[in-house]
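Progress report, Aim 2. The chain analyzed during this reporting quarter is listed below.
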Amino acid sequence: MRRGIAVVILAAALAGCATNVVPDFAAKPYVLFNREDAVAIALREWRLFGSLSDEPGSPEPAAAKSERAPGLWERVGEYWWLGLGGEGRDARWTGKHDANGNVFPAADDERYAWSAAFISYVMRIAGAGDRFPYSANHAGYVNAAAAGTSPILKAHAPQSYTPKLGDLLCFGRDWAANLRFSDLPTRGFWPGHCAIVVAGQANVLSVVGGNEEDAVTMDHVGIGSDGRLLSVDRSTEWPIVIEIRYDAETEPDPP
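Predicted structure tokens for the chain:
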């Protein structure tokens, strides 16, 4: 009997491990899930990788594959572990290791694409809690936004919505390159990319995403006078916009 009780206690402890990987400040969270923090977290990670950008004169990567560089492969591992809550084989990957801790060939890095893990990490650390459908594939939360199964996500066509700071811009890649808002939700996963809006000016949005050029990088997206993405023949490079319904715009004022 005592042995049986001990097994039950051990099983319960192991079951709680996944939730314990998320720090209390994000899991409780300490402050309302807010737009300002999500943007600041994404920008912090962008600076960590060297502030790489698509603008002329942007700094060059410090390493051929930043995701495998000392100090950065571990950071990618944190995106996987924290973004996925420590659950599944993917959560054990790093920028250069598989789930068993073995270094995979650099040429195989597409099998370990971490851009969705990066978005999941930002949302988790910003305090989205269990309302965000964390996923190793962008389709996981894009489909949730289109199907209305997440209370804080809503998918929009770029012609009908003005992106705000903290929202996500998304597109399909490879065989899903022609994916459009009207195709959502899909039945399965598809290769794609999403980036978080971190700044906006009169005619351009700045967005930050992971696993671009094997790093966290910033891209710039043209917008019209109404703030919506520019379209050419009713198409755009970012055909899906995910509105994120934050609890607050900014952190509360200190007492």
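Residues 35 and 249 are 5 Å apart (CA to CA). The helical segments are 2-15, 17-20, 24-27, 35-48, 73-83, 115-126, 138-147. These observations will guide the mutagenesis work planned for the next reporting period.
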